[in-house]
Amino acid sequence: MPPRPYVLLSCATSADGYLDDATPRRLILSGPADLDRVDEVRAGCDAILVGAQTVRADNPRLLIRDPRRSARRAARGLPAHPARVTLTATGDLDPRARFFAPGAPRLVYCATPALAAARARLGDSAVLIDAGDPPSAGFVLEDLAERGVARVLVEGGARVLGEFLAAGLADELDLAVAPFFVADPAAPRLDLPGPGPDGPMTLAETRRVGEVALLRYLLGPGGPDHRFLRWAVELSRLCPPSHSAFSVGAVVVGEDGEVLATGFSREQEDHDHAEEVALRKLTGGKPGRDPRLRHATVYSSLVPCGARASRPVTCVQHIVGAGIPRVVFAWREPRLFTDGEGAEQLRAAGVTVTELPGPAERARAINAHLVPSTP
Ligand SMILES: NC(=O)c1ccc[n+]([C@@H]2O[C@H](COP(=O)([O-])OP(=O)(O)OC[C@H]3O[C@@H](n4cnc5c(N)ncnc54)[C@H](OP(=O)(O)O)[C@@H]3O)[C@@H](O)[C@H]2O)c1
What we know:
Layout (H helix, E strand, L loop, with lengths): L5 E8 L18 H12 L3 E5 H7 L8 H9 L7 E6 L17 E5 L4 H8 L4 E4 L6 H10 L4 E4 L3 H9 L5 E6 L24 E8 L2 E7 L4 H13 L13 E5 L5 E6 L9 H10 L13 E6 L12 H7 L4 E6 L10 H7 L3 E4 L4 H7 L9
């Protein structure tokens, strides 16, 4: 069984938490800068999922707008646009909706009782999947995983976002808060059918994007260590592909939980390692420049390298040189390019090293072209 896809929930709300107003016209909550940010997020996903009511009410295109982003995907052997996915109990969908336009694969998860009618209505405009009765978010994710989807962006609406949250099936929530109020109880807002996720989410980022405030929360089991590590693994998907080096993601987190920097392999230069890039962003290559590192944790999808062919300084040396006291990693390096014992070297230098193998299979799958079989 492939691991279930990473689930990124994304929505924009008013300052009082509404996803739309109650009029038939779609309320635009994001500005151009935020729409561009979402376009970048879309470009990093295999599928975009919205509820059937959003298909009916908003008639979204669900395409990547910037052709350079589609071209980058195509260069990596991916379809130019992510698959479009929707979920329906009634099957009440119009095949003339933009969701069914050519340009991206279309998947419709439909409740069993409505399947025959939906098939008659939609014909071959989409792949129709019997999602059981009642359909569940968990079933959809299992089926998407079997179709090769590793990362899914859930863009709304209220009910679908709430279902993923209440089922504990969200890894990340990107919330863009617009600078105005809707103040209408009849308007849709996040709609959780049960209690929300256990405990607080982990705040990983706050950023001004034009006029909206972006809050990036991490969720999922295991608390902050597991969540930051899963995020590091996701960053590794952004690496320019290579046949001679691993794709790795790293997140550096301060003592108070603030994300200080992120990095991924080959992010700035050809031979960059993830930890090296993240630390370079903080210190400009001069260890000791950022005192926050003396209490920080490095999360890395792969154990930091202890031997290296491409450059003279290993990631272990970068980490020790910066005075970082703690490293958490997912995947132990297979002896493919070097035989450096990064974890042991870090421990010998007094760094606390924690191996959390939960996301190791995901980290390995991103490097499947280098290590095709499970070790
Ligand atoms: N601000 C934002 O970022 C944003 C983003 C997207 C949407 N929105 C807004 O959100 C509103 C729509 O939200 P919504 O809550 O009404 O609808 P929704 O979440 O888009 O879709 C709900 C529909 O999805 C289907 N569905 C959901 N869970 C299902 C399940 N477990 N099994 C079978 N079918 C399931 C059902 O379709 P059937 O009715 O066909 O059975 C249900 O009526 C719109 O106003 C839209 O503008 C806002």
